[in-house]
Amino acid sequence: MEAEKGPDDDEGPLMRVPALEDLLGISKIFVKFEGRNPTGTHKDRIARLHVETAKTLGFSGITVGTCGNYGVALAYYARLFGLKAYIFVPAGYTLGRSEEMLRYGARIIPVHGPYEKAVLESRKFAVEKGLYDANPGSHPEIDYLGYAEIAKEIALRINPYAVFVPVGNGTTLSGIHYGFKALGLKPRMVGVTTSFGNQVLREFYGVDGNDFAETEFNEPLVSIVSFDRDAALKAVNESGGYIFGFADDTALYYASLLKGVGINALPASALTLAGLVKFVRKFGVNGKNFVLVVTGGVKNGRGPTLDGRALSVNGWKDRARVGEVLQKV
Ligand SMILES: Cc1ncc(COP(=O)(O)O)c(C=O)c1O
Questions:
Q1: Is the pLDDT at 137 greater than 80, yes or no?
Q2: Is the per-residue pLDDT at 317 higher than 50?
Q3: d(Cα 14, Cα 156) in Å, to the nearest integer?
């Protein structure tokens, strides 16, 4: 695997992955790996900006409803900037990152009901207690600015033909699209998600119903309501992109392919590779710059990894270590 990195090594790596290209007969595949962020996922991008904004506006605390990853990121930055974090988590969720949130000094409030209920309760709590509301849809401009950084870092290296992004609320895809637009670039935005379990997908195909089962693998993508649905659909349609839906076994299969080339991806975000395979077959294009936005497979506080071992932010700054890891791939 050849590493493509920013000048001071400070961005999440954009890696071209020839091993996958050979395996799948698709070139050119780039992975924008978000797993090296401080708490291991792309959520760090927006968590930091929300906490900084809350601090600047004079709030003493911040709140969010989350399935886990966003809560850990918010708790981490809240601690860094001296704010109290109140994290509403659906009681049945399985990610198992509560220990980390508590370690960062956050208060966890379990909610009996789905993710959307956790968001609503957190919103209500923000109003009642005078806290900064970091929930999706509350400060969309901050979310878009945070995720636009991903677009900027990709554009530093290549001009992408299509960018594949997992879709839950649709915020990440919308923000990345916003970032490319600001740079005058127009890659096709391709969303990947769980079959029928996501509102952006249901609206894209014009289908009703909620015929799906939530599992530990599709949890980050399942939505009754996708809070950034309209922006995501606009980004997909305006850019000439597409939305693909997949089952869990596909996510696990592609996560194992990525693992085979040294990338430990959250199964939900390994669907970007499934989306690429389908996109190439459906539209008959190949040999373009294809970028997969992949987040780290962090579970129960373990990860992020690129080679099966914990790889810290500092690890990435150590060029020798990076070389050692990438050579093995
Ligand atoms: C890399 C990546 N981007 C985006 C998402 C979904 O984010 P959003 O809720 O902003 O659509 C996920 C969820 O797994 C993800 O792994």
A1: yes
A2: no
A3: 10
**Residue 318 belongs to some domain of the structure:** no
**Structure tokens that stand for 38 in this block:** 């401080």
| CB neighbours of residue 4 within 10 Å | 15
Q: Where a domain ends, among 82, 117, 133?
A: 133
Ligand 1: distance of its center to the CA of 103 in Å? 24
The ligand 1 site (C-beta within 6 Å) comprises 34, 42, 165-172, 220-221, 266, 268-269, 293-295
Distance in Å, CA 170 to ligand 1 centroid: 7
Residue 38 in domain: no
List beta partners, residue 190. 164, 242
* Look-up of token digits 């040294």: 262
- 25 and 166 belong to one structural domain: yes
For the chain, what is the mean pLDDT? 87
- The span from the CA of 16 to the CA of 113, in Å, is 41
Instruction: Please give the pLDDT value at position 95.
Output: 60
Pocket probe mutation, ligand 1, options 167, 192, 292, max atoms within 8 Å of Cβ: 167
| pTM of the predicted structure, to 2 decimals | 0.88
CATH number at residue 82: 3.40.50.1100
Categorize the per-residue pLDDT at 287 as very low, low, confident or very high, splitting at 50, 70 and 90.
very high
Is 157 among the domain residues?
Answer: yes
* Nearest alpha carbon, ligand 1 atom 2: 166
Q: Measured in angstroms, how far is the CA atom of residue 275 from the centroid of ligand 1?
A: 14
Tens-digit pLDDT profile for residues 35-64: 888 898 899 999 999 999 999 999 999 999
CA–CA distance, 135 with 139 (Å, rounded to integer): 8
User: For residue 63, how far is its CA from the centre of ligand 1 (angstroms)?
Assistant: 19
Of 69, 102, 133, the last residue of a domain is: 133
Q: Are residues 156 and 256 in the same domain?
A: yes
Residues 110 and 174 in one domain: no
